[in-house]
Design brief:
With about 90 residues, this protein is mostly helical. It has one helix at about 75-94, and strands at about 1-5, 10. The protein has one domain (about 1-94). The chain contains 1 helix and 2 strands. A two-stranded antiparallel sheet has the order 1-2. It is globular, with a radius of gyration of 16 Å. The model has no long low-confidence stretch (mean pLDDT about 85).
């Protein structure tokens, strides 16, 4: 399952998609650093791939050859919040 980093909605993307591909839900670019499995806020150049070139913007389409769409854990952020809230409520019901 893949999640758009801009709108946080679940999307379907095949393995090979165009650099110009956009999210069907929000219209945002998909070939962006924020959607890449190598993106890391704490790494040098914010990328775990040492051979990648510096990207000025992380939320706009780029030409990075190392881009691989990040896989999510199976639950959307909204589902994770709801699950955590339910577990917390169950904890205090006893």
């Amino acid at each position: 399952m893949k999640i758009c980093a801009l709108c946080k909605k679940e999307i379907e993307v095949d393995k090979y998609f165009s650099r110009k591909a956009t999210c069907p839900k929000c219209g945002g670019d998909l070939h962006i650093c924020l959607n890449c499995k190598f993106y890391s806020e704490s790494s040098h150049n914010k990328c775990l791939e040492p051979r990648s070139e510096f990207q000025r913007t992380r939320d706009k389409t780029n030409f990075c050859d190392f881009f691989i769409f990040k896989e999510s854990s199976g639950m959307s952020a909204e589902n994770k919040k709801e699950d955590a809230r339910k577990k917390l409520e169950d904890l205090f019901k006893k």
